[in-house]
Amino acid sequence: MRLILWTSAAALGIAAALWAVTVPAPLADAAALPRGDAEAGARVFAAAGCASCHVAPDTEEDGPPVLSGGEAFETAFGTFYAPNISPDAAAGIGDWTDAQIVNAVMHGVSPAGAHYFPSLPYTAYVKARPDDMADMVAYLRTLPASDVPSQPHDLAFPFNQRWLMGFWKPLFLRDYWVVPDSVADDDTLRRGRYLVEALGHCGECHTPRNALGGLRVDAWLTGAENPSGEGRIPGITPAQLDWSAGDIRAYLSSGLTPDYDSAGGSMVAVIDKLAQLPEDDIDAIVAYLKALPEAGQP
């Protein structure tokens, strides 16, 4: 009997410890968000590239984007599908509060208190300013609603266990800048850092990952294997990309390379969204990229 009691107590203690470690931790200040501005939010939405993933595949954009989801992302862990984030109350996020949306985007926590998988790049968005997120939410609420249901992810065990993100997040969900203030030492560079590291989440594709799927910030923006297994995503530090500032600016604005080739793959959608940003933002991104150390993290 004593053995049974001790075993039960130990099991309960382990279960309580696991719950404490893996329980999602929402943003403490999300409930105190300022009132968002939809016009400013359109710029944040473009910089964050939301439509690139959440507009249905093969949709011809004509007018405001319909964020019905459905885009598939193949990875070593399985296939993730972008969900419906339109203002539809049933299929989308129309009945979520502003705080719930910001918690999802910045910390990967659902309204029900479950972890989201990092296919939603909250490891980048955690660095975003809450006022920008509030503006983006205000813009999202102006977009057309869609009643298309979100597709479930196709993940094998154990990668389909959301509670495991409770162990993953402390390792890889960090709100520090990869490039510190000593390198990003003026307003232009800090704006570029904000656009590249936070809103633009460029590291999600251009930085290699470890076996757990976390970004290797010691090799920041030095290139990575394509998650789909097709080809390689290029590095964009000065060591891998010897283009001039003007060349990079032209590419980000038009999609044309210095040798008159054009952007392909997912960069087509990225450049389409960057073209909606003011020239000062493009200049800031270029300045940040040119200021990077030649081999990853400073």
UniProtKB/TrEMBL annotation:
Residues 1-20 form the signal peptide. The keyword tRNA-binding does not apply. Pfam families: Cytochrom_C. Residues 36-144, 187-293 form the Cytochrome c domain. GO terms for molecular function: electron transfer activity; heme binding; metal ion binding. InterPro entries: Cyt_c-like_dom, Cyt_c-like_dom_sf, Cytochrome_c-type_DH. Keywords: Heme, Iron, Metal-binding, Signal. PANTHER family: ALCOHOL DEHYDROGENASE CYTOCHROME C SUBUNIT, BLL4482 PROTEIN-RELATED. This is Cytochrome c, mono-and diheme variants. It comes from Palleronia salina.
